[in-house]
Amino acid sequence: MSPIKAIQQFVSLSKEEIAEIASLFEKKEIVKGGRFLEYGKICDKVGYIESGSLIFVKHDSEGNQIATDFLFDGDWVSYYNSLLLEIPSDVDIICNEDCVIHVLTKSKLELVYESFPKMERLGRMLAEHAFIDLAKRSSNLQKLSGKERYLDLMQRKSIVLEKIPQYYIASYLGIQPQSLSRIRKKILG
Which SS3 state, helix, strand or coil, does residue 53 take? Predict the structure, then answer.
């Protein structure tokens, strides 16, 4: 799906508006292991993932990678903390596989909002969705066991289990890879 079709699921656009907004996106191909956003850089863009998957990765004090989110085809990608506050990112956003991403720079995004006020509705909805996901993840880490968090992930985002390496899934769930293996054995038999 194109970013315009994704936008049209939420906002009604005329042919002229479609043409103008579409012209602002830049299609980028990023190879597996490449970065949509690099740690320490200020995020200055949002993107629509046409194909591929991405992993948000933080590094703990010992240098271990901790996955904090996963995105796939049809998702929007940005790092709001850095984008909105204009501060260096404390995450890497890594391509888990070759990706095609339609990118809108922050300046072009602001132009879209100014030129098409109804587009702010989409921006608000995406921000709200990101906030709800973050709140749910935080709550799950505090109240659910490792097995319950895995079952929840299976139910909510089973694609993660198909595409993302196990060590990233384990770190996302807040458990050791060996514990994830035991949990998977018990569940899958």
Answer: coil
